[in-house]
Structures are given as structure tokens and as C-alpha cells.
Amino acid sequence: MLLLSEIGMRLGTAAAGVGSAILAVTFGDLVMRLVAVWLAVIFLSLFTVMVVADIRERRGLPPPKIHGTGRPGAAEWVFVVVFDALMALFVYAGVLDVQRGGEGELLVAGVIAVGMVLLLTGGVVRRWWRHRRAGTTGGRR
Q: How far is residue 107 CA from its own chain's centroid?
């Protein structure tokens, strides 16, 4: 059974995602529309992860195991691709803002966000590379 605070967290995340999606549809400005799409996907993906975890827990399934070594699973690759694509969208919105005469704050925020996400997703790529190299060289480094 979920606590009231957990239900509130899920509802708040869903509301932020749906609200951002509605703003993305109503904005006339391309840069603001891209930022709203970015926010909507972030919030709705977090909501999806929480709901899937709740369903797995309710059905009695163990949480998925993410190993620090070995070949990354499909779910990890999905997260890497989705979040890296979202960061590219964020930087693209910043570039469009600068081209139309903006100050560049959005571009700087996008570059900082890309740096953080690349550090996080780089671990998955390094694990894949080590696994791939170990498989092709007979386990030697």
C-alpha cells in the first residue's frame, strides 16, 4: 500500500508532465515549445518508472538487478538513448535561442545538463565497452 506522500509524488510528477505537454502544444514560440517537450518527457518518464516499479512490487516481482559489471540490459540502453536525446533537444533549444538574439542562458544550462547526463550514461557505455572487449579478446585486457 502506498503512503499518501508517495501517491502525492506520483500525482505531482504526472501533473507536471501533462502540464508541460499542454504547454508544449499551446506555445507559439519554438524554443519554449522545445523546452516544454523536454520537461514533459522528463516528468512523464519519471512517472512511468515509478508506476512500473509499483506494479512490479504489487505483483511480488523483485526489482530489476543492475549489475556494476557485465553487459548492460535493454532497459539501461533505453534510458541512455532517451536521456541523451533529451539533452540534445535541450542544447538545440539553447542554440535556437542564441540565434534569435537570446542571452545564452538556456544554451549554458543545456551544456551543463549534457555534461551531467553524459557522466551518468558514460558508465553504461564503459561497461558495454569492457564487456565487448573481454568477449573479443578472450577475457584479456
A: 18
Give CA angle at 45 (42, 46), nearest 5°: 85
Return d(Cα 97, Cα 110) in angstroms, integer. Answer: 11
Supply φ then ψ for residue 44, to 5 degrees. Answer: -70, -30
CA distance 108 to 123: 24
Identify the pLDDT of residue 130.
Answer: 83
Going by C-alpha positions, the residue among 68, 66, 117, 109 that lies closest to residue 90 is 109
Interval 18-35: pLDDT, tens: 999 999 999 888 888 999
Nearest to 120 by CA among 72, 66, 84, 73: 84
Taking 70 as the pLDDT cut, the residues of the chain under it are 1, 66-69, 136-141
Domain limits, the chain:
1-63, 67-141
Tell me the residue type at 51. V
Q: Which residues contact 98 (CB under 8 A, 6 or more apart)?
A: 104, 106, 107
| Closest to 37 measured CA to CA, from 50, 27, 47 | 27
* Contact indicator for 106, 31 with CB cutoff of 8 Å: yes
Contacts for 12 with CB less than 8 Å, ≥ 6 apart: none
